[in-house]
Amino acid sequence: MTSLKLLILFIMITMMQHHGIIYRTGSKRPGRQPREVMEERIKPKPANMLGTWRISGVSTTDEGVVRPDGQPVRQYEPGDNHNMLISFFPDSTFTRVGTKGEYTTGRWDFDTAANTIFLTSNRKTEEIGVFISYADNGLRLINFEFLPNQSVSLTEYGQKLLRFQDDPYFGKNNWWRIKPAKSENEAQIRARLLNYLAHTASILSSAQVREQDYISMEFSQGIVKLYNVGVGVVKKDKIPATWASSFYSVEEAHKAYAMFEDYLFTAKHKKYQSGNWVRDDHHILVDIHNGIKQK
C-alpha cells in the first residue's frame, strides 16, 4: 500500500473515530469456538433467537422463471434497501426499529417442533419458519421463511445482554420513538428527551459489554453528537427528521432541543479522561441525563 493510501486510510479512521463510528477495545477477540458450541448456537430454539438481528437481504423465487437446469430463479435484494433491526428478549417481547423512524413492539413465541416463530403485534400474529446458520464472516444468520418463495435473512447484530432490560432496543428504552396522540406539556417533553438520552447512553454501555468493534447511531438518529472525548449537540437546522417526528410537533421537538442545548452550555460538567472515549462519553451522557432530570 502506498504512503498516500496509508495517509488517506489514517485520515478516514480518525474522522470516523471522532464522530463515534469506530470503537476498538484493544482486547484480543476470542478464538474460534469448538465445533460442538458452534453447532449448539445454530439449533432452532428460543435461546438462540435472543439478541438483536439486522436484515441483510430479501430473497424471492419466481416460480414462472427457471434456469437451464430447471430450477426456479431466485432473486436476492441486499439489506441496504431494508434497514431494520429486530430484537428478541427473554420476557417474550420483541422490538423492530428502522432507520426511517419505524418502530414496532410485540410478543414472540417459538415452536421447537415445527421450527417456527410466532410474532404478535397490532393484534396480528404471523407464523414464520426459522433456519439458523453461519454467514461467511462467522456471524450467525437467521432465515425467516415467510412463504415458500420468499425469505428474509438477518445477520447477528448484537448478542444478548445478561441484563436484557439494559439493551438499547428493549421496549422501555425506546418509548421516546412513539409519537404522542396529543400535545405534551413541558414535563412530558422533558421525559421524552430523557428517555432518548438514556437510550443513547445504553448504546455506548452495551458496546463496552459486547466489546463491539464499532458504534453506529444509524438506528437512533437524534440531537446528540459524540466526540472523542465529549458530547455535543447537532445544529438546529440539522435535527434529524426522524427524531423531530417522534414529538407531537416540530415546535415541541425544538423545546426538547432547547432543554438539551441549554443544559450543555450552562451547566458545569465533570471531565472524564480514562483513555476510552466510549466509556467517557457514556459517563458524560449519564451525568447530562441526571442533571436535566433534576432541573
Features:
two-stranded antiparallel sheet; 29% strand; alpha+beta; 2 domains; globular; 295 residues; 8-stranded antiparallel barrel; Lipocalin; single chain
Task: Describe this protein's structure.
The protein is α+β, with helices and mostly antiparallel strands and 295 residues long. It folds into 2 domains: 35-158, Lipocalin, CATH 2.40.128; 168-294, no CATH class. 29% of the residues lie in helices and 29% in strands. It contains 6 helices and 11 strands. It has helices at 3-18, 35-40, 186-210, 241-244, 250-266, 277-294; strands at residues 51-66, 72-78, 84-88, 93-98, 103-111, 116-121, 124-134, 140-147, 150-158, 224-227, 230-233. The strands form 2 sheets. It has an 8-stranded antiparallel β-barrel with strand order 1-3-4-5-6-7-8-9. α3 (186-210) packs across α5 (250-266) and α3 runs antiparallel to α6. The longest helix has 25 residues, at 186-210. The termini are far apart.
Please work out how many helical segments DSSP would assign: 6
Following the backbone from N to C, one meets helices and strands in this order, namely HHEEEEEEEEEHEEHHH
Strand residue content: 25-35%
Strand order of the largest sheet: 1-3-4-5-6-7-8-9
Estimated radius of gyration: 21 Å
Q: Main sheet, how many strands, which sense, barrel?
A: 8 strands, antiparallel, barrel
Any idea how many domains?
2
Helix content: 25-40%
The count of β-strands is 11
Please report the distance between the alpha carbons of the first and last residues. 54 Å
> Can you give the mean pLDDT?
86
Low-confidence spans: 4-20, 22-30
Broad shape: globular
